[in-house]
Structures are given as structure tokens and as C-alpha cells.
Amino acid sequence: xxxxxxxxxxxxxxxxxxxxxxxxxxxxxxxxxxxxxxxxxxxxxxxxxxxxxxxxxxxxxxxxxxxxxxxxxxxxxxxxxxxxxxxxxxxxxxxxxxxxxxxxxxxxxxxxxxxxxxxxxxxxxxxxxxxxxxxxxxxxxxxxxxxxxxxxxxxxxxxxxxxxxxxxxxxxxxxxxxxxxxxxxxxxxxxxxxxxxxxxxxxxxxxxxxxxxxxxxxxxxxxxxxxxxxxxxxxxxxxxxxxxxxxxxxxxxxxxxxxxxxxxxxxxxxxxxxxxxxxxxxxxxxxxxxxxxxxxxxxxxxxxxxxxxxxxxxxxxxxxxxxxxxxxxxxxxxxxxxxxxxxxxxxxxxxxxxxxxxxxxxxxxxxxxxxxxxxxxxxxxxxxxxxxxxxxxxxxxxxxxxxxxxxxxxxxxxxxxxxxxxxxxxxxxxxxxxxxxxxxxxxxxxxxxxxx
Length: 452
What we know:
Blueprint lengths: L22 H12 L4 H11 L4 H25 L6 H8 L2 H33 L5 H18 L1 H31 L21 H15 L15 H30 L12 H46 L5 H4 L10 H17 L2 H30 L5 H20 L3 H21 L14
Helix pairs in contact: 1-7, 1-9, 1-10, 2-8, 2-10, 3-8, 3-9, 3-13, 3-14, 4-5, 4-13, 5-6, 5-10, 5-12, 5-13, 5-15, 6-7, 6-10, 6-12, 7-9, 7-10, 8-13, 10-12, 13-14, 13-15
């Protein structure tokens, strides 16, 4: 029987969550956050910006995320606690840098359920126009919040079913696209290099910018590490789940983009760039395929919403436990379900307000700022903790891989839009002001930081 790890194995924390998640649960959790159908959110604009070479941008993004997934796994093995990016950076490098990494990822995790509320409500409203958009927002928010309050075990069971359904729809979509192409539609051939390299339109800048945009689809594999205190064997399973979920979704994204590009070669002619894959689904299999794809997108908002809200609540729990956020509020657990109920309700409230006031495009771009910033911190944490602090001089594992992860993420990060970078840095400044006030000008050190 596998050893049942407790937080006290590595930290001065008492075990507060139930360990119920297996490796399969963790992998599905990561896939549920990313969602197999994620290209539907960005395909039109991303395909147009890459001149039809989105498959190449997805490949680059996947490789970049794989390096970071490895680093997350390494740090989860060292510190199997809730808090993820925040906890790793805090303990490996510096407590204050840890706060800023957590603050950046907090923006990312806050925006995930927000954007899925928006997308889910939009498509649900399109299917059932009689029910207003704002009502759909409240319905989706109520379902996701209720499941998360009841507990992670119920959320895991729900994800198993929903991810399976989405996976089947994605495979059916790909098959129908290939079938239509083989019958003469689009490119008329199933083998083409153009989705990866079109000599007439190739531009390194376009591809890298596309890869930065494609990172949006991968945001979520890191959420697995927020469940370290609920995993049966965090040291063995977290790193495997992070890498495998990232790889599985990456292959699905690349093949979807490839199939869609073959069927609809001219990416400048979509009736609506926001609904490009729905038009492609309709071309591939008629109205029935388009409807099925729409239902799958609505389902994806539930899985991403469940995992996003859950991860954010546990990140806040970790920061509250360390007293860098108000402890009494952020560490409060439901007396029956043992879940961070105040954090979950706070996330629900923020997401509802944002879904009613903000545009989808702005939210999607801002997610990349927080996500890539957090990834850079975790890659750097592996180098500092393993290579320098523990002096494990394994050049490839503890230096080369995380260094490549850091460099790639940094390169993608600086290629985000000027608006995204401006708003992102404003968010970091707000965090700095909060930290300065809460520590009385950095004079009052939270207890967990003492001795670090």
C-alpha cells in the first residue's frame, strides 16, 4: 500500500485536507482545467495572426509548457503543500518574491472561472436565447460553486465524466474534418506541411506571438500542484500528472488546429473569428456537428470553472495560512465538507461581477501575464533550490531543463500585448502596496517567513 503522505512530512503544517486523489484523478483534473476543446476559445484570431500556422505555434507552446510542467513536478516533490507557485518560490528563493509570484498567479486563477462564466453563458444564451446572458452567468456560477463547496472528491467525479464527453467530441470533430478533406474539401489532402510551415507567409515574430497566445490553452496544468495536500502520493504523482496532462492536451490542440486548417485553408474568411471552429464544425459535419461542438464548449466551461475556482481557493488558503493574506478569512474551512468555503464564495462573487462587465479578449490576454510570470518563478525555483541550495549538480535535470523553461516563458511573456503588460504590472504594483501596508513597510514579518 502506498504511503499516505501528510503535510508535516516536509512542513510545519497540520494536515487539513483529505487525501483522496489518485494519479488518474490528477491528470483528469489538469485536462479539465485546460479542456480538450480549448482551441475553440482562440482559434479564429490565433489562426489569422499566425497566417494559418497555428499548429506550429501550439507545438512551440507545448514544448515551452512541458519544461515548466517538469519544474512544477520537481517543486511539488520537494514541497507537497497547497499554494503551488507561491509556496515553491517562497521556500526556494525568497518569501517576498514568493508573494509576488502568488499574486501574479492569483490574477490568472481569478480570471479562469471568470472567462468560463462569460464563454459558457454566451454559448448557452445562443442555444437558448429565451434565457438572458446574465441569468446563465448566475446558473453556471451556482453549479460550479456548489460542487466545489461540497468537495474536491465530487468535483473529481464530475470532471471524469465531462472530460470524457469533451474528448469524444474533439475526436469526432477531427474525424469529420479529415473525412471532408479526403473527399475533396479544403486542401483536398490529409498530408500537408502548411499548418506548420508556409514559406509564403512564415514570420518568426508572427509564430512567437501566436505561441504566446496559444499559451492560453495550456494554462491550467499547474493547477494540479495546488492539490498536493489532497493527492494520495504527491511526490510521485504530481510531476507525472503535470507533464502527462500538458502533453495529452498539447497533442489534441495541435491535431485540432491541423485538421481545421486543412478543411478551411483561408483563415481570413471566417464569418466570425470568435466562432471560427463552429463554422468549421458545420462545414465538416453539418448543423448536428456544430450543435454538438457548441454543447462541448459549454461543458468545457463547467470543467474549467470547477478546477479554476478550486485552484484559486487553495492558492488563497496557502497564502492565508502563511498570514500574507488575512488568516481568519482565507483559511476558514467548511465544518462539514472541509473546503475553503469563504475563498470559494469570494471567487464566485469576483467572477460574476467580471463576467457582467469585462470583454472576453481582455480577460484572455491578462491570464497569460499571470500564468507566464508564475511559470518563470517556478523554473527559477528549481535551479535555486536543487542546483544551488541542495547542491544536486545534475546539470540537465536541475539546470538545463528549468533554464530553458524560464527563457522560453520569458520570451513569450515579453511578446504579450502592450495593454496586457501595462495592466499586469499595475496588478503587481497593487500587490506591492498591499504587502507594504500589511507588513508596516516590510518591518512586520509574517511568522512563516522567519528564519527563511
